[in-house]
Design a protein that fits this description.
The chain is of the alpha/beta class and 501 residues long. It has helices spanning 99-102, 135-149, 172-187, 206-213, 232-247, 277-290, 307-311, 317-336, 347-351, 357-364, 399-408, 437-442, 461-476, 483-487; strands at residues 4-5, 13-16, 25-26, 29-30, 40-42, 51-54, 57-62, 71-72, 77-78, 108-113, 119-120, 124-129, 158-161, 191-198, 221-225, 253-256, 261-266, 294-297, 373-377, 389-393, 413-418, 430-434, 449-450. It has a 7-stranded parallel beta sheet with strand order 19-20-18-17-21-22-23, sandwiched between helices. A 4-stranded antiparallel beta sheet has the order 1-2-5-8, with no helix packed on it. The protein has a 4-stranded parallel beta sheet with strand order 13-12-14-15, with helices on both faces. Helix 6 packs across helix 13. The chain starts with a strand and ends in a 14-residue tail after the last helix.
Length: 501
């Protein structure tokens, strides 16, 4: 097996499958320096100013002449990103359902049908706080309620509260964004019932938060302000008893896979993420969308440099225009803070072999597979269930913010690929997929699935995708928990971009 992997025939760089020592004789000749696994090596001479190609697309420009066989990374490559993306709409694609992908997994899973027609993969009691001031009381109510109501035969899978630092001293759109995310969580079908807990004097008044949540099934939501009762813990437990009685009537039953909404996320990526884990999740996306379900992509800054292959799949001119406006609008956001557009790859990304934002983005968007883009959703807006395609959600790449945004948009679980590893988890199962075997072995308490067999000779990506889909179905059906659930890693992170009073 070659030590190098050329991803696309047009690429002028290849990726080191494993660490390669200086002096090793490759197809390009003797290697002059050590090259870590996941890093790039030039397949042929590249002149100064020449385009570096990976995945079949430009990932940057050579800052000097690069010889064949030379290590290609930050020392000799720069990003080519700059101005707004300009793309021409070429017509609505007709992308038929991938029948091969549709056969990768089952047609049903075991879920909870809700009265409003939605489906949950968990039947939990959630506490949503209007403001940070009641974080600690909410956590105590959740802990005591779990001791009382989560028991065999209760049908309650758990009790969770989600602390956050906002809800007061916010104005305008900043406050509206907080309300929209909290509302999306309150509406989430994985919550069989919800307690909305307020303080009473905050900017995010209870009435406004309930209006953001909208109409819900009678009995599903209880709410009160802590300032208006004698003992908020006792009052909270009284309300939780009513919610437990309401949620306890739901039981799992077979429901179609088309009801599933899955968020696709990468974090702590390395040079293998765009080769193993992300394309693997892309096949899961193909399976889900072919079955009529919804896959969500976000991390808008990690679409910079990958706009062409991504937006070429827009299902209509309207969707194309919305998607392009979202990406260019995010560039305006960077410029409004005097930040460079291409300053994205983290120190961990770079150590793992990712050189530029284009390099990162072209690997990132592969999590969306080949399905058409059918919806563009704003931050805090819901993704349409039963979409049969992709929904792009407007949110940054930050792991906590983007995963929370996809959860609020309705994701039942997050398929989270990683090359460096992270324990992060959000309110829904956060399924960690390692891009390399070393991580999968070293952090077994974090990782749910090892994507590295994708590179094993004789193993097809569809074989590995079947195994991952089986894992997703088992977790969605409650037959096993994701590692973040086992570890108790459940949190939310809100995107704040306004003044604090």
């Amino acid at each position: 097996m070659s030590l190098l992997l050329q991803i696309n025939p047009s690429d002028n760089v290849a990726v080191a499958r494993q660490p390669i020592a200086a002096g090793t004789v490759l197809e390009t000749g003797p290697l002059a320096t050590d090259v870590p696994a996941g890093h790039k090596i030039a397949l042929r001479p590249i002149p100064a100013g020449g385009v570096i190609r990976k995945y079949g697309f430009a990932i940057g420009l050579a800052t000097r002449d690069i010889a064949a066989g030379e290590h290609v990374h930050e020392h000799n490559v720069r990003s080519g990103l700059g101005a707004d993306t300009v793309l021409a709409y070429t017509g609505s694609p007709s992308i038929p359902a991938d029948r091969a992908a549709a056969s990768l997994g089952p047609a049903t899973f075991l879920g909870y049908r809700r009265p409003d027609g939605s489906v949950g993969t968990r039947n939990e009691l959630w506490i949503i706080n209007t403001v940070a001031c009641v974080n600690v009381p909410a956590e105590r109510i959740a802990r005591l309620a779990a001791e009382k109501f989560v028991r065999p035969g209760s049908n309650i899978d758990g009790v969770q509260s989600f602390s956050h630092p906002y809800g007061c001293s916010q104005l305008g759109d900043d406050l509206v964004h907080t309300q929209k995310i909290l509302a999306g969580l309150a509406r989430h079908p994985n919550a069989g019932a919800v307690l909305v807990l307020g303080l009473g004097c905050e900017n995010n008044q209870m009435r406004a938060q309930l209006e953001a949540i909208g109409a819900t099934t009678p009995g599903r939501i209880q709410f009160f302000n802590a300032q208006e009762v004698g003992d908020e813990i006792e009052e909270g437990l009284v309300r939780m008893e009513k919610l437990a009685a309401y949620a306890g009537r739901f039981k799992r039953e077979p429901v179609p896979v088309s009801s599933l909404v899955l968020g696709m996320k990468c974090g702590g990526s390395d040079g293998f993420s765009g080769i193993t884990a992300n394309p693997l999740v892309g096949r899961v996306s193909d399976w889900l969308t072919a079955a009529g379900g919804t896959a969500i992509l976000t991390e808008v800054p990690e679409m910079f440099g990958a706009e062409e292959p991504l937006l070429s799949r827009a299902a209509s001119r309207e969707v194309f225009d919305q998607g392009l406006a979202m990406i260019n609008g995010f560039k305006d956001y960077f410029r409004s803070h005097n930040e460079p557009i291409g300053e994205n790859p983290s120190p961990g990304n770079r150590a793992g072999g990712i050189t530029t934002l284009e390099d990162k983005s072209l690997g990132c968007v592969q999590k969306g597979g080949r399905a058409s883009i059918a919806q563009i959703a704003g931050y805090g807006d819901p993704a349409k269930p039963g979409l049969g395609g992709l929904c792009l959600v407007n949110a940054p790449g930050n792991d906590g913010v983007s995963c929370t945004a996809m959860t609020a948009a309705g994701a039942h679980a997050i398929l989270f690929t990683t090359g460096r590893g992270t324990p992060l988890g959000v309110p829904v199962p956060t399924i960690k997929i390692a891009s390399n075997h070393d991580l999968a072995e070293r952090k077994k308490t974090w990782i749910d699935f090892d994507a590295s067999p994708v590179l094993t000779p004789g193993v097809s990506i569809d074989e590995v995708a079947r195994e991952l889909i089986a894992t997703v179905i088992a977790i969605a059906s409650g037959q096993r928990q994701a590692r973040n659930e086992i570890n108790g890693f459940r949190e939310i992170t809100l995107w704040k971009d306004g003044v604090t009073l």
